[in-house]
Specification:
heterodimer, A: 116 residues, mainly beta, seven-stranded mixed sheet, 13 strands, B: 109 residues, five-stranded antiparallel sheet, 11 strands
Chain lengths: 116, 109
Amino acid sequence: IAGITQAPTSQILAAGRRMTLRCTQDMRHNAMYWYRQDLGLGLRLIHYSNTAGTTGKGEVPDGYSVSRANTDDFPLTLASAVPSQTSVYFCASSETSGGANTGELFFGEGSRLTVL
Amino acid sequence: GQNIDQPTEMTATEGAIVQINCTYQTSGFNGLFWYQQHAGEAPTFLSYNVLDGLEEKGRFSSFLSRSKGYSYLLLKELQMKDSASYLCAVLDSNYQLIWGAGTKLIIKP
């Protein structure tokens, strides 16, 4: 089934540990995104990539890093997890038009991360 | 700053009609989107408006007024499966989506 796969779906992590959330898409979309979603707040963009080999910072990038070595994969790394990073993380992708996001995003099922 | 406002929660009756409003103030405008998100699931795309007016798609319609910075999502013939959060988002001048916090819609029998 075409779409976006995230792993793990759920994880409990001790503060200070390093964690990588994996994201793979098979739709050949140029653009990919990482969001976090917290109760009462909208989706907040962490990092994005408009095409393989490039990345950009979103609204809340601190404490997170990403890489885009190829079109399909877009991992998100927490170098040293803190409790405020407890959240649901969504990876998404979209087609681009003239290099720009079209706005129609396809989301993975989410990764629920708890940092203790 | 950029801001998207929508009601936190709404309640409606099965079979009825409900209108979910969204107002926005963003740096630039390249389209307004509505997404549906069932509890514990990922958001899914519902509709897109870039020109003023009404876009109809089955039981769901979305309206846009760019001069007023206003949109609404209209859901007709409500079904229990329509219980979900509805997210309003605007594509700004940098082609980044700015998201509202979402409206939780509760459908009662």
